[in-house]
Structure formats: structure tokens, C-alpha cells
Amino acid sequence: MLLLLPRLPDRWDPFATLRVETPPGPFTRFKLRRLARDPEACFATLAAAGLTALPLPDGSAGPGCPLRATLRLAGPVPLDPPRPVVTCPLAVAWTIYGRHVLDPAAERHFGARIRQVRHLGTLACRDVRGGTRRSQHATANAIDLAGLRLSDGREGSVLHDWGRPGPAGAFLREARDGACRIFGAVLGPERDAAHRGHFHLDLGGWPICR
Q: Mean pLDDT in the chain?
């Protein structure tokens, strides 16, 4: 007799199509790496979520800094500075992060919506600090989150609020922990002094959460 096993939920199925509506699960990072090898599927993922994402022409930011399958990131959470250049998989990761981590955490700890997220950049043709290999920023595959502005005018920042009691500190802790379920590398104030004012989020090949 043939037994029909129940279908796995998408978040627990490594072969299911990645959808930004699905909360992050144990295979989210695996699926993001798969999208990095298939730009067409990556842009289709954004389109399926109702996001307009026009690919930028492939090019280079400098020696050893190729730009492939990039776009201008416009949402779902408004950014300051606006519309930074990112890889398509990073745009998908950021969309999942905004919907399933940042927005719910802001409602939980502040009782308010996020009006804007402040970042320190996505694209810089350089090596990792103190190293000789290229940073994920060299290919627009990273973003540095510095703080946020809320719909009621309040603000929070990694530099001033990390580790402090109160809603801002609790929000940032949840934002950092939630990022570790989505991005490959998450580096913050507990990593070193170079990251004391921001969370570095990237989709590189070296998983780390500090």
C-alpha cells in the first residue's frame, strides 16, 4: 500500500521555491544561495512578491569588484540614503528581513511602524578591513544597518542603544538575532570596534553571527 506523506511546509522544504511571504526557516539561507546562481529566478522571486525590480547593467565598481544581477533597492522598508545598489539575492533577503523581523519587532517593542532605516552603504570596492580578500561590499552583496526612525518620530541607533535597557535595546537585539536566520554573515558591536555602530549583513560564503 502506498503511503502518502504530508507535504512539508515551504519553510521546512529545501526544494520549495523561496517566497518572501514565508517566514524565514532553516533553509532560507540555502535558498538564497541558490538564487545567487540563478538571477532570472531571483528577479522572478521579487516580482512574485509584487516588487518592481529592474536589473541594472552588469559592470564593475573597480578592479576585482564585478557587479552582476544588481538593482536599486526600494523597499519594503524605506532606506536612508535611498535606493542603494544591491545584488538581487540581497534584495530578496532584505525584503524577508523587513517583513518578518524588522516590522514585527518594531510593533512589539515600540508599538509603532518603521518609517525609515538608516544604513551606511552597500557598495564599496575594497578589501575586508585588516584583510586581503575583497569585502562583500565590493560586489554590493552587503548592507550596513545603523539605525531607524519610527512613524511617531522616535529613533534608535546601534551606536547609542545596543546593549542598553529599554525598547530600543530590545529591538536591536531582536533585529540582530533575526538577521542571523536570513543573512550569511551578521557582524555587530559584539564582533569588534569596527562594527560598534552598525550591523553588517551580507550573503557571503562564511556564516557567522556576532
A: 92
pLDDT of residue 13: 86
Domain presence at residue 41: yes
Residue 83, C-beta contacts closer than 8 angstroms, at least 6 positions apart:
72, 73, 74
In this structure, the chain runs to a length of: 210
- In three-state secondary structure terms, 158 is helix
- CATH number of the domain bearing residue 193: 3.30.1380
Q: How many domains does the chain divide into?
A: 1
| CA-closest candidate to residue 51, choices 80, 24, 86, 27 | 86
Tens digits of per-residue pLDDT, 98-121? 999 999 999 999 999 999 999 999
In a domain, 7, yes or no: no
Confidence (pLDDT) at 94: 96
Using CA atoms, how far residue 192 sits from 171, 176, 188, 204, in Å, is 20, 15, 7, 19
